[in-house]
Amino acid sequence: MLSVIPNPPRIVLPIVGSEDLFPVRRVYCVGRNYGAHAREMGADPDREEPFFFLKPADALQIVPYGTVTDHPYPPRTEQYHFEVELVAALAHGGRDIPEADALAHVYGYAVGLDMTRRDLQDEAKRQSRPWDLGKAADASGPIGPLHPASTLGHPTRGAIGLSVDGRERQSGNLSEMIRSVPEQVALLSTYFELHPGDVIFTGTPAGVGAVSRGETMTAAIEGLGAISLLVV
To answer: What is the pLDDT of residues 153-211, one digit of tens each?
Structure first.
């Protein structure tokens, strides 16, 4: 039996220190997971229940270390915002995963960006519509190579930040997450059956803002290095 169209390419992430690749299944994102960011978005982090949204796997843009990668400015937006995030990649799945066991499901971590058409997201909020047009643009999930947890460990603290043309725009610490990685994995597994290849964008610190064509974003997490993108 043959496919009636060419098979879409599988999205795979490079792995630091290995020639092997990590195949991506689904991309989950947690919303407003740093208190200062929740407040800058007009939410109360002490009262808000955790929530998630998804990006298409093919919205990921692979960004190697040591180069500046062109990043396309998407159509139909005048407010294209950056959000630097720690990304966790799962090697094992399941349902109703206990929080105490959740880190055993994580293969590794990467630096990522949840790029957002903020004007479209804000309009969706006003009209009580889904966020897809704001969050799921082509290439809206830049991501660096994966660092295996077997060599890195599971980071719970460390600087996370983003600069634009060398000027600091976001600065925080992984310890400021409202819900830790194991909490996110455990909670997600009550909504979905998780599978190997799922990745989770774990939230962004305060300071999100617009980027313009011709500007270079550099996203960095302590212990994971940095990725750089030129907006074109």
So the answer is: 999 999 999 999 999 999 999 999 999 999 999 999 999 999 999 999 999 999 999 99
How many domains does the chain divide into? 1
Q: Does any domain span residue 3?
A: no
pLDDT digits (tens, 9 = 90+) for 9-27: 999 999 999 999 999 999 9
- Rounded to two decimals, the pTM is 0.95
Residue 36, domain extent: 12-231
Ramachandran area for residue 76 (φ above 0: left; ψ -120 to 50: alpha; else beta)? left
Inside any domain, residue 1: no
In a domain, 195, yes or no: yes
